[in-house]
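Hi support team,

I submitted a single chain yesterday and got back a structure, but I'm not sure I'm reading the token output correctly. Could someone confirm the output below corresponds to the sequence I sent? I've pasted both exactly as they appear in my results page.

Thanks,
R.
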Amino acid sequence: MENAPEIRKIEIEQDSLNYLNTTRKWTMFLAILGFIGIGLMIIIGLVAGFFLSAFKTADIPAGFPEWLIFIFILIFAVIYFFPVMYLFRFSKHTSNAVHSLDKEELKKAFRNLKSYYVYTGILIIIVLVLYVVVLVGAGASMAFLKNMG
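Hi R., thanks for writing in. Yes, this is the structure output for that exact sequence:
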């Protein structure tokens, strides 16, 4: 005879719901600021790309195409979009869960919060690896330059 897995439940008290509701408000605020920041990044990228191409002089080469600046800013905006979207979804589902006491909405909220932290953690790991690669490359370059002089 198989043992049925024990179903464990957790009850959320009113104080915890109030804490979740307060957290929801702040994550919504941060998500809205994030969306505004993404919009500004795209606008600044477009303006910078436009002005650099419009006022380009043939005398001074930039070393890279001007539209490349917009592409880099667009890539950063896309990378930044996902954690902001996860925060927004967390806030929206938490609001629904707190107001209607719906555990499925709370599950969706926590799923988005988990996705936010996983995405942010992976992004931080990638940035740290890039830092190490750049530092090692810079150190190797300095050692090479030192031997030349």
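A quick pointer for reading it: The chain has a mean pLDDT of 89. Let us know if anything else looks off.

Best,
Support desk
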